[in-house]
Design goal:
Layout (H helix, E strand, L loop, with lengths): L3 H5 L11 H8 L4 E6 L4 E5 L1 H6 L21 H12 L3 E10 L8 E13 L5 E10 L1 H23 L3 E5 L5 E4 L1 H7 L3 H4 L10 H17 L3 E8 L5 E12 L5 E10 L1 H23 L3 E5 L5 E4 L1 H6 L2 H5 L12 H16 L4 E9 L2 E14 L2 E11 L1 H39 L6 H32 L6 E5 H15 L4 E4 L6 E5 H17 L6 E8 L3 E8 L6 H4 L23 H11 L3 E6 L5 E8 L6
Helix pairs in contact: 13-14, 14-18, 15-16, 16-18
């Protein structure tokens, strides 16, 4: 008769009689291990991890049902019975268990994959089961985290305002986000593979495909603009950008990219092109020379009139210096200096110079203004006109004025001499009061006429560049006193009050400065007919002396103040009546001061009088 051990391969406590080292190895195994005996699944052995899975209960020689929690309604134990019955190993995966794994009083969840195998006796009969559980918590948590990341990625991509996509090396779509689906109105699966190309406007498909083939061969960044057919029937412009994608082993895997809605940008670009076309048409039809430059001073646009005036290629390659290669040699330095100064200061400018047109030089009047877009300087735009005929007419006029003024000066001088003689003869004859009064009146008018002729001659000299200055140091107060006294003799209704000031020395043309003061004073008297006072004041800074002539007359409107020193400009008085004169006195004064490196300006309010100023550099005596 066979013993129990010979019949079943087990005897009571047979495992505990095995090698102690093997038992210790099983107890410390990283997996959960249990040996069950008989169809009742009596627990003959379990290690510490398996005991924790069972809630820390004592399982030895007890049915597993007393300790094992089966959350699936007995499915676990039916699996054990099936293995015991069939002898085939069975598996269950990611079995969740909550326990105090570290024996610190804190419960946490872990996951195990279990394998249940039959245990056979020496006679190859199934007499028990072997359970082994492998902790797969890290794998489960990693998968859960990956799933959460995938969900987050989907949420992010679906929330993006741009369409995101991934294609393989053949150009087949393997992913599109919700934005692309919303644009087209078709489900996700429709776009996979080559389905997406059906939503590209037919006229753009060839370009899109050819660009992809070219870039995928080069493995370069993919960029193309194309139109998409939207679900609402509209056409939408998109800018597609793709970046090459590589696997961890360095193998090229296709592209990942985006499509941005650029419909509004395309509309703006088209509007800009239309605007530029309208501008070009208007500019080409305008009877003036129109030009534009960039911030680097280089010419960027010339209208057609330039082609009729000069060679366009030469103009465009002229480094932006207002076509300096075509300028008259005598004008080039002045024009370039003035242009660069205005450009650097972002100021308007107006220049008159000669430019070659065909075989001749023609006079051009050129104006330029800064181009400012949203506060950003973008260069200059300007226009020019051929003013050759005007210059010639002006020269004829200046020659005539000069000749007429010169011819008038001789008889006027003779008349004045005879008047002075008559005044000296009859000055003591009280019975000839009317005659004396008449002679004085004629004398005053001759003085006015003399000043007018002098101004006209000066204008002629200025226009022709023949006005000369004889500069020498002198005390400014001396000239002011002399000039004020001279004018005061003719100003019967005004007191000219000179406020005493320190003696300042200037290096200037004494007669010309006296002429400026005279013009300021006579102007102040003329435009303050209802006032009886003119003030003259002098002040100085470290480098210059300033003279002010203040009247209390009709004043000047702000819009007229910028024109007051222009040639032939006159301020109108009451009832639109114009004051007498040609409007050249202040112009002559301003030009004289300008040639002395000084400045002229005015401060005025309508009906509150005016203060005219001019400044001159102070003279410094050398030690």
């Amino acid at each position: 008769m066979l013993s129990e051990t010979e019949e079943t391969g087990f005897s009571a406590g047979s495992f505990y009689q095995s090698d102690n080292q093997l038992r210790q190895a099983f107890m410390q195994a990283p997996g959960a291990l249990a040996i069950l005996r008989g169809p009742e699944s009596l627990c003959e052995f379990n290690n510490l991890l398996f005991q924790k899975i069972c809630g820390g209960r004592d399982l030895l020689n007890k049915p597993l049902r007393q300790a094992w929690h089966d959350p699936e309604g007995g499915e676990w134990f039916r699996m054990l019975e099936e293995v015991y019955k069939t002898g085939e190993t069975a598996h269950t995966y990611e079995y969740a268990v909550t326990a105090d794994w570290d024996s610190d009083g804190n419960l946490s969840e872990r996951f195990f994959d279990f394998a249940c195998s039959p245990h056979r006796s020496a006679g190859n009969d199934i007499d028990g089961l072997i359970l082994f559980g492998h902790d797969v918590t890290v794998k489960v948590q990693a998968r859960q985290q990956f799933a959460e990341q995938q969900l987050l990625f989907k949420d992010i991509t679906d929330a993006a305002a741009t369409a995101l996509w991934t294609v393989d090396t053949k150009g087949d779509i393997i992913f599109v986000n919700q934005t692309w689906i919303d644009w087209t109105g078709e489900p996700y699966d429709v776009h996979l593979g080559r389905g997406w190309i059906e939503f590209v406007v037919p006229q753009d498909r060839e370009q899109v495909i050819n660009n992809f083939r070219r870039d995928v061969n080069l493995k370069s960044q993919y960029q193309v603009d194309f139109r998409v057919l939207r679900k609402d029937g509209c056409t939408q412009w998109v800018a597609a950008t793709g970046k090459p994608r590589y696997l961890s082993n360095g193998e090229f895997a296709g592209y990942v990219g985006s499509c941005m809605d650029i419909t509004e940008r395309k509309k703006s670009e088209q509007m800009l092109r239309d605007s530029e076309e309208r501008f070009r048409n208007i500019a080409d039809s305008a009877p003036v020379l129109i030009w534009m430059t960039g911030v680097d001073k280089r010419t960027t646009f010339l209208n057609k009139n330039w082609t009729q005036f000069a060679n366009v290629a030469e103009l465009l390659s002229d480094n932006g210096h207002l076509q300096s290669s075509l300028m008259h040699p005598n004008d080039k330095e002045m024009v370039i200096t003035s242009y660069n100064q205005a450009f650097d200061n972002r100021e308007e400018f107006y220049l008159e110079y000669r430019m070659k047109s065909g075989e001749d030089f023609r006079w051009i009047g050129m104006k330029g203004v800064p181009r400012i877009n949203a506060g950003v300087f973008e260069g200059y735009i300007g226009s020019g006109m051929d003013i050759t005929d005007m210059k010639e007419h002006e020269q004829v006029k200046n020659d005539f004025i000069g000749m007429a003024s010169h011819e008038l000066k001789t008889p006027i001088t003779s008349i004045k001499a005879y008047i002075q003689l008559l005044l000296s003869i009859y000055k003591d004859r009280s019975e000839d009061e009317f005659l004396l009064k008449s002679l004085n009146t004629v004398n005053k008018q001759i003085n006015k006429l003399t000043r007018l002729i002098t101004d006209l001659l000066d204008v002629s000299k200025m226009e022709s560049g023949r006005l000369s200055l004889n500069c020498e140091p002198f005390v400014l107060n001396d000239v002011l006193n002399e000039t004020i006294e001279e004018v005061q003799h003719t100003a019967t209704h005004h007191d000219i009050v000179f406020t005493p000031a320190p003696s300042y020395t200037v290096n200037a043309d004494r007669d010309r400065i006296a002429q400026v003061v005279t013009n300021f004073l006579t102007n102040a008297i003329k435009y303050s007919p209802e006032s009886d006072r003119i003030d003259v004041k002098v002040s100085a800074t470290e480098h210059e002396v300033k003279i002010a002539v203040q009247d209390y007359g009709i004043g000047i409107n702000p819009e007229e103040q910028a024109k007051i020193f222009n040639r032939f400009y006159r301020v109108e008085g009451k009832n639109e009546q114009t004051f007498s004169g040609f409007g050249i006195g202040l112009y002559v004064a301003a030009e004289i001061i300008k040639r002395h490196s000084g400045h002229v300006w005015v401060q005025s309010e309508k009906s509150n009088g005016s203060a005219f100023y001019f400044s001159l550099p102070l003279y410094r005596y050398e030690a």
